[in-house]
Amino acid sequence: MRLITASDEDNERLLHYFTQMTMPGAIESRARRMFSFFNQYRIQTNDYITCILENNKHEIEAMASMLFRPGFIENKTEVVGYATDLRVSPTRSAVLNWARHFLPVLEREREKRNCRYIFSAVPHSQRQAYNAFIRPRNLRRGMPRYHLFRRFDLIGIHGLWPFHDLPLTGIKIRTASENDFEQLADYILKKTAKRPLAPYLTIHDFKESLDKWRDLYVENFLLAFDTSDNLIGCTAPWSPERVQRTYPVKYDSSSSNFRDVLSLLSLLRLAHPLPKEGQEFELRHLTHLYADNPDIFYSLIYNAYRLCGKKEFLLYPHFEGELISMPPRSFITNSTPYGLYCILSPSDPIPDFLKPRSFHIPPVFEPAFL
Fold first, then answer.
1. Is the pLDDT of residue 130 over 50?
2. What is the per-residue pLDDT across 187-217, written as a single tens digit (0 to 9) for each?
3. CA 245, 248, 253 angle in degrees (round to 5)?
4. Model confidence, pTM
5. Cα separations (Å) of 127 from 23, 191, 252?
6. Strands 222-225 and 231-238
7. If DSSP codes are grouped into helix, strand and coil, which group holds residue 206?
8. Is the predicted pLDDT of residue 64 greater than 90, yes or no?
């Protein structure tokens, strides 16, 4: 087997391999990239690399991608990496060969960019990956070390209970226009200032980020204002359907029960149903979700849900210890636990920001990129 760096010429076989691989969990799922495999990365950064492990027949046996972009960490902005889309064929040869190649690739790409830290989000429901990388039985010298940075839940919003609370009348929600750009950018820069992994330093940085993000425009944002017309919250519901689509392959017993409940509640117009196995999830990510307090947060997601199609649901991250983004009880929700990990080489010292603390400022991290 040999390890190569993928290019646009590998697009078709990457699309095929990626679609064939399923992701385990309460809902076993399959993702399909649309048009170009690399579009998921291009909406984030121009600096990315995908590595392929191929056999003697030029068939893909494993793959992973790394993305690099600016991020605020340890009181300064530097190049931060993100490892994603790790897929390994379920053969002993693929697993052993990928384990041998993973660390050298990681160290090489870090050194090229003077990047000290690479992060990766791992769902705790994927027990095979969790046990292999996060809690291995044997500490192998040739494998990187995964250190927990933050825990978070990916919250799904599927419906509203009867007799739910109504948003406060003093909070005005409206769709943004191009004229709101500077006020919106200034608000987001203030909300993300000095938060871990924050990618924005200037209004130009924020505009550049929006320009890269396919199908996301200023007009997609919902803005919250107080009675004095001060901006006090925002979010941008975004559908990834032209970049990546996800399909349930198999529901386990608990997720199947939840799906049955949603189907029943949908008949009562209280919830939106989940698709059958093999059909596409219709979802929207609540990107750029910031609010000054829980009431504003509730108003934003209430209005975002009201704009959903009959089969759509919403997703957003709730980081451990963040009170504002707690899932409101008025909504019918589910949660998937994740860990955001920092990947270090065996010889790397553990930085201070990974040491346990009672209260954490949540990082700037968009699950839309998962």
1. no
2. 999 999 989 999 988 999 999 999 999 999 9
3. 155
4. 0.94
5. 11, 35, 15
6. antiparallel
7. helix
8. yes
